[in-house]
Amino acid sequence: MTDPVDLTKLDPATLAKHLANPEGVVGIAVTAGLNKTNASLYAAAVAKLAVHAQQRILEIGFGNGHEIERLLSCAPSLVYTGIDASETMVAEATLRNAGPIATGQVTLRHGSSSALPFPPGSFDKALALNTVYFWENPVVDFAEIRRVLRDGGRLVLGAIAPWSTKNRAHFRYGFQLYDAEQLTTLCTHAGFDAVEIDILNDQTVSVSGEKITRDYLIVVAE
Question: Is the four-CA dihedral 62, 155, 137, 159 of positive or negative sign?
């Protein structure tokens, strides 16, 4: 049996690496911690997504798939497609969601939002939480998301506010942070006509067990 991972002993660079692309037992442990840490963010984002029956949903960065069942419960006959950069997470989420995968309601893919393997207009809604930091050229990713959304489709994106990262060392490793103005510009350049950004104030516990208060930018683009 594998010894449990002590997340409190992870150095900032290692934690950042597994937040960007979870791998192996450490990545699995980090992502399990995020299920609790990001629960409020996910709930707020799904509410903004405003899904309706039979809509086609794309999620970018689904992690271990812990929240897929919650999303599917929001409306009847939803069809969910997820894409994630981590092969470890694809495997974990596939095990967790074996039932709806078997019925065809859920499809999980390994890949990147910079090259989405879907035809134009494939989806009604798109969700991307805590992933924008790791997009090498976000102009491309936003354009790809807009391309695969139908006309009038909605993107909901969540990202931590830059001012909430002070004194949290792991954000110095591989994170590109964006303020509201920058996110608005990225959305409009990608072809979204309307962009609204709300701030979610969240009190939670980090994956290493630290009590934190943070602000999240929740973007709704159509």
Answer: negative
Domain range holding 111? 7-221
Nearest 5°: the CA angle 101, 142, 185 is 145
- Tell whether 2 is covered by a domain: no
What total of structural domains would you count in the chain? 1
170/93 Cα distance (integer angstroms): 25
Half-sphere exposure of 136 (CA within 13 A, CB side): 5
In whole angstroms, what is the distance from residue 62 CA to residue 201 CA? Answer: 22
For residue 127, being part of any structural domain is answered with yes
Q: pLDDT of 165-197, one tens digit each? A: 988 899 999 999 999 999 999 999 999 999 999
Please give the distance of CA 147 from its chain centroid, rounded to a whole number: 18
CA-CA distance, 83 to 60, in Å (whole number)? 5
Please name the residue ranges forming H helices in the chain.
12-20, 24-37, 39-49, 68-72, 87-96, 98-103, 138-148, 180-189
Region for residue 50 given its phi and psi (left: phi exceeds 0; alpha: psi -120 to 50; beta: otherwise): left
CA-closest candidate to residue 72, choices 62, 83, 57 = 57
In degrees rounded to 5, what are phi and psi of residue 195?
A: -135, 130
CATH of the domain at 175: 3.40.50.150
**Which of 62-71, 100-109, 172-181, 207-216 is predicted with the least confidence, judged by mean pLDDT?**
207-216
Three-state DSSP state, 59: strand
Rounded to an integer, what distance in angstroms lies between the CA atom of residue 15 and that of residue 35? Answer: 15
